TrEMBL record:
Classification via Pfam families: CstA (PF02554)
Signal sequence residues: none
Name of protein: Carbon starvation protein A
Keywords: Cell membrane, Membrane, Transmembrane, Transmembrane helix
InterPro entries: CstA, CstA_N
Bilayer topology annotation: Multi-pass membrane protein
Listed transmembrane segments: 6-22, 133-156, 162-180, 187-206, 247-268, 277-300, 320-341, 361-382, 402-428, 468-486, 492-508, 515-537, 557-579
Length: 606
């Protein structure tokens, strides 16, 4: 029986080579220079452009990119196809594709005033290309907000301890923001005091769990749980999600909207920095526990892989490994959402250009370690065939609890703690996504004095534009069928972000090689288009309309299937159009008909 430690050590070895070697080359390749002012310093406004210390910004960036997907994806892929294909895609794909994607997205934004990838592509292929990419990204953001808000609600329902702990550390973050930015008190002392408070919040959550409504008939809460209300069957989505879960959803979406409207110093920076210690402890602690438990045999059960190594090309569910593995595991290997974070909030807070290597490339490697931990948990527990949120969350918490027994931590504590780690990722990702969506609406619509411009620049109205459709999507129940579409859209966005970086490099200097970004772009574009094609033509058209009788489907099921097909084909069409525009631009500049930009910035900036 193979021990889990070999899974961990192989990933650590490949990631170390990637960071020490490839990331150093990439930093020189894009000419990071600390003598050049970053957008955070050039446009400091106390609201969005705020220079942050490297550990603070790394905490924000890591917390924002590492949501539920790097847990759900590896667990689902491991159960369906076996742990070997999932591990290979994470261990090899992350340093060669995902970390490159995040780093070049951040670097290109630095040279374009901290603007988004949509703005950057527009500088080179025109306004039409910019708007197409921004609309593509904005639709993906709505799916992100819906999925993450739902997952937080599910975790709060399954682990009421997480709800209490989350409230504690959000309150601490507000105070820490005032401590750092208004009172200008010592950073290190504040770190010690407030990080201690965050871990105190973990114990508070375990001692005083919180639920909004009573548990459903098939569930129960820990002893001592405070239940605030009774009834609740009137809440939208209560019948399909459960009353308590359905009640948490609008609260989380409202929190995301309000948090996204606040200045970054007030909540985003301090909260993400504080929660990063919880995240590092969870991920790093689990990895160390695997090593300790294997070497000293101190875990409650042997940390051996119980999951099959390979379950065949069609897997355990009749789903083809190629191309669906590459969109099932998104975050953890490569994710388009990260490009929005890198070129959105992170680029506006970078203190020095050289910080981009640790935060962009290194942050993505950190998410790969989270994906490895998730895969390790499912390898130990080896659940029955299945996948998605319903399997991933309990497996991650229960498997993680078993791993932490290597330190003598009982599973009654370790399971809830790993659930808290998951929520810490998700809450930061949710409000960061809303903030990014606001940037996109402002870029698409503009912020002039027109009625549309007034709505776009109104932080609360802008958040509602995203939150309302996300809420409708969740409560309608269609989120289940749109999970694959979310994965496809996310991966296709990654391909377009790599296209943007490739176009930027081509316009910068004729001597810049385009292989580091061009090959990953071609790979992800091909895999994702094939995956979305499978979703549209096989899973919907063939299975639901040709193999089965449409008469057997309800109106909602029919509309859902048609919507998925249309959206998949629209996404494919948008992507192919943008690729064609980008390719024409590269042909033009590399053919000597375009002017390169000496410093890698905006055309005409020098």
């Amino acid at each position: 029986m193979v021990q889990v430690i070999w899974m961990v050590l192989s990933v650590l070895a490949l990631f170390s080579v990637g960071y020490l070697g490839y990331s150093r080359y990439l930093a020189q390749f894009v000419e990071l220079d600390d003598d050049r002012d970053t957008p955070a310093h050039k446009y400091e406004d106390g609201q969005e452009y705020v220079p942050a210390k490297k550990p603070v910004l790394l905490g924000h960036h890591y917390s924002s990119i590492a949501g539920g997907a790097p847990i759900v994806g590896p667990i689902t892929a491991g159960v369906v196809w076996g742990w070997v294909p999932a591990l290979l895609w994470i261990a090899i794909g992350n340093p060669l594709l995902g970390s490159v994607h995040d780093f070049v997205s951040l670097s290109s934004s630095l040279r374009h005033e901290g603007k988004s990838i949509g703005y950057i592509i527009g500088e080179y292929v025109g306004e039409r290309g910019k708007n197409m990419l921004l609309w593509f990204a904005f639709l993906t953001i709505i799916l992100v907000v819906a999925v993450f808000a739902l997952v937080v609600a599910i975790v709060f329902n399954a682990f009421p301890q997480a709800a209490t702990a989350s409230l504690v550390y959000i309150a601490l973050a507000f105070v820490f923001g005032v401590y750092l930015y208004q009172l200008n008190l010592p950073f290190l002392l504040g770190t010690v005091i407030f990080v201690t408070g965050v871990f105190g919040g973990v114990f508070a959550g375990i001692e005083y769990p919180l639920a909004l409504f009573p548990a459903g008939a098939d569930a129960s809460y820990p002893a001592g749980t405070t239940v605030l209300f009774s009834g609740g069957q009137w809440i939208p989505g209560a019948s399909s999600l459960g009353v308590n879960t359905a009640a948490w959803v609008p609260i989380i979406i409202l929190y995301g909207g309000l948090a996204s409207a606040l200045p970054v110093w007030m909540l985003l920076q301090p909260r993400d920095y504080l929660s990063s210690f919880l995240l590092y402890t969870g991920v790093g602690g689990a990895l160390l526990a695997i090593i300790v438990g294997t070497v000293f045999g101190s875990a409650s059960q042997p940390l051996e892989i119980q999951l099959a190594a390979y379950k065949g090309f069609m897997g355990a569910t009749g789903t083809p490994l190629f191309p669906l593995l590459f969109i099932t595991i998104a975050c953890g290997t490569i994710s388009g959402f990260h490009a929005l974070v890198s070129s959105g909030t992170t680029a506006k807070q970078l203190n020095k250009e050289t910080d981009a290597r640790t935060i962009g490339y290194g942050g993505m490697l950190g998410e790969g370690l989270l994906a490895t931990v998730a895969l390790a948990t499912v390898a130990i527990v080896a659940p029955d065939v299945g996948g998605g949120i319903g399997l991933a969350l309990p497996t991650f918490a229960s498997g993680g609890g078993i791993i932490l027994t290597s330190f003598g931590i009982p599973t009654s504590f370790g399971g809830p703690f790993m659930a808290l780690v998951l929520v810490s990722f998700l809450l930061t990702s949710t409000d960061t996504a809303v903030r990014l969506g606001r940037y996109m609406v402002e870029e698409i619509v503009g912020t002039d004095a027109s009625a549309a411009g007034e709505v776009a620049k109104n932080r609360y109205a802008n958040a509602a534009i995203q939150g309302v459709p996300a809420y409708i999507l969740i409560t309608s129940g269609s989120w289940l069928t749109l999970w694959q579409l979310f994965g496809g859209a996310n991966q296709l966005l990654a391909a377009l972000a790599l296209l943007t970086a490739t176009v930027w490099l081509a316009n910068w200097d004729d001597s810049k090689q385009l292989i580091s970004t061009g090959v990953p772009m071609a790979l992800m574009g091909t895999m994702t288009i094939l995956g979305l094609g499978w979703l549209a033509f096989h899973d919907n058209l063939y299975v639901k309309f040709i193999q089965s009788s449409p008469a057997e489907m309800t109106t909602v099921q029919t509309l859902s299937a048609v919507t998925q097909m249309v959206l998949a084909l629209v996404l494919i069409g948008l992507a192919l159009s943008l690729v064609r525009m980008g390719y024409r631009n590269i042909q033009k500049v590399r053919g000597g008909r375009g002017a390169a930009v000496a410093d890698g910035g905006e055309p005409g900036s020098d």
